[in-house]
Amino acid sequence: MNNDPTTYSAVRSDDGRKQPALIDHIMVLAIYLSLAVLTQSVFKTITVWPSAGVALAAFLVFGTRIWPSIALGTHLAVLAYFLETAQPLFSLANLAINLATVVGNTLAAAIALRICGRVDQHKDSFTQFDWVASRFLVAIFVFGLLSALPGVGVYWLVGQPWSIGYLTGIMSWVISDSVGALVITPLLVKLWVSGITAFHWQRLKVYLPISLGLFAMLWFIFGPGQAQLSLFFRQPSFILIPLVFVAVTCGQTFTFLLLALTFFAVWVGTSSGYGPFISSIDAITHASMQAFIGFSAIVILLLQALVAGQKNLRARWAEDLRQHNLQLEQVNASLEATVQERTQDLSQALEFSETILLDSPLAMGVYAANGQCVRANSAYATLVGATPQALLAQNFHGIDAWEKSGMLTDCRTALAHKTPAQGEIHVVTSFGKTVWVEYRSIPTHLKGEDHLLIQFVDLTQRKRMEEELRHIAFHDALTHLPNRRLLLDRLKQALRSAKRQNTLGAVLFLDLNKFKQLNDTHGHDVGDKLLVEVALRLQGVVRDCDTVARLGGDEFVVVLEGLGAEATEHASAVTHKILEALSAEYVLGDVRHHGSASIGLKLFSGADDDPDQIIKEADAAMYEAKKRES
């Protein structure tokens, strides 16, 4: 046993899990029996059975080895019930009832453990929304049901009838256990796993006003204070407001503690005849209270799990980002040190040999202070589309592409200040080759003079791939027209332009008629050819400043910009041109096709600001046109 007073009294097994020590058995037994006696002897009702929450929490934290405490606690609770109701303790019928209740309660907790899994090494289980929703809540229901079946069934076996009937009795038992577990289990698990230190007492300035405010509401809604409130303000749903606030803003320990105290107060008030659930029929009173406590507890548990999970996720992201930045700094420092080391080595090597430069696979050239190229290797010449001899006849002042790119300014600054310079440029060289390169210019001392060693890395292929990916992201793969994403961006620009220039624009929404029939008859290849031909015809009708986009399938959108006062007439004229162009015969390989289209028109001005709404209205207009045509 661990003698450290700041840690749990439980011992650890070989796999590191908490195993119950004697003090843990005593603690579980005391809590279980205290809540049971309080329920049976003080409240005189078992509509809520908080001891079920003790049993479930004990199994989740300590595992199946805690079963003796739960079995003994259940046994003593049943004996206390017999004493309370003046029944014989050791009659055969009552012995059977006691045994069935003990076995059912203990086995139900063990099976619930199999559903949830041990939480002693996973104190953040209640921060996992999926675990709470799909495992914990299911385990609570299974626990209540498996406990109720033998507990109620034994009464039927011994011939003792229930006044409310056996099936109703089972349901009542399930609800009583489930509600008690919903309120008690999270708090006990949190305290047993994290310890009382998990409660941030230093935040008492925040917790105290919230607690006082909530208890004041409970006094007025479920206590004697209800006489001072109108019927409207006695709504139990008002209690959810501070509980939701606590679940969103405060820690788990305080949330679970306040949840348990709140519903204990609801239970006390209702049992004392206060609150909105009081009815002349006891069953309705109990059912209303159980439904409110159970529903509210589920909402708070799910809400706090969602919020806590998001906080943990953001914390992990922040930590991952911090670690990534540290690694990046280390890599950069290492690279910088490597670059400086290699630069120094290269400068020294250049003083003794030209072989390193000329044979290097990296594109490199050496320039004098006056801009004359004095060394150039074959990789550099290949990069710019020249020969080493041609480069030696040039100086970088005469290379317009370098000059316009701003690279020369960086190189001159590097040479003047004896510091490296680097950057990226996209140019057409004087030798007629288009390149996109990353350059690094390094001042060096070379045959007693300052020179610049310029190293180039060809980025052309990578940039071309990036451009292709960008095109794929914003264009339709079949027709190469703008897709919906690019269409919305163009339409936003058109709206801003219309507002700035006080002009109008129009959106034409097109849908091809008989397209499905063509696809079904001749196959998708012919359909694709038709879509490509439609795209070409649409582009041939509109202006260069207009946009033709494909939304998908046989739906196209045309955006007309910069329309004047006669916008309607202009848009109508374009519509007729489109209809005429699309109605001409299509020659699609061996297939000849005559088609048509339905077009919806929507004018827009600078006052409009929702591109999606404009497209929807144009779409609706298209469907109206299609109805008229049919």
Q: Mind telling me the C-alpha Rg? A: 40 Å
- Give, in spatial order, the strands making up the sheet with the most strands: 4-3-7-6-5
Count of discrete domains: 4
Beta-strand portion reads 5-15%
Ends distance: 86 Å
> What's the story with the biggest beta sheet?
5 strands, antiparallel
Report what the structure shows.
The chain has four domains: 6-195; 199-341, no CATH class; 355-462, PAS domain (Beta-Lactamase); 478-629, Reverse transcriptase/Diguanylate cyclase domain (Alpha-Beta Plaits, 2-Layer Sandwich). The protein is an alpha+beta fold and 630 residues long. The protein has helices at residues 22-42, 51-62, 67-84, 92-116, 129-157, 166-194, 204-222, 240-249, 252-271, 282-352, 355-359, 378-384, 388-392, 400-405, 407-417, 460-474, 484-501, 515-522, 524-541, 567-583, 611-629; strands at 11-12, 18-19, 363-368, 373-376, 421-428, 434-445, 450-458, 504-513, 547-552, 555-563, 586-588, 591-593, 596-604. 35% of the residues are buried. It has a five-stranded antiparallel sheet, sandwiched between helices. It has a four-stranded antiparallel sheet with strand order 9-10-8-13, with helices on both faces. A two-stranded antiparallel sheet has the order 1-2.
Briefly characterize the structure.
Helix content is 61%, strand content 13%.
Notable features of this structure?
alpha+beta; 5-stranded antiparallel beta sheet; 13% strand; 21 helices; 630 residues; 4-stranded antiparallel beta sheet
Write the layout of secondary structure elements.
Layout: E1 11-12, E2 18-19, H1 22-42, H2 51-62, H3 67-84, H4 92-116, H5 129-157, H6 166-194, H7 204-222, H8 240-249, H9 252-271, H10 282-352, H11 355-359, E3 363-368, E4 373-376, H12 378-384, H13 388-392, H14 400-405, H15 407-417, E5 421-428, E6 434-445, E7 450-458, H16 460-474, H17 484-501, E8 504-513, H18 515-522, H19 524-541, E9 547-552, E10 555-563, H20 567-583, E11 586-588, E12 591-593, E13 596-604, H21 611-629
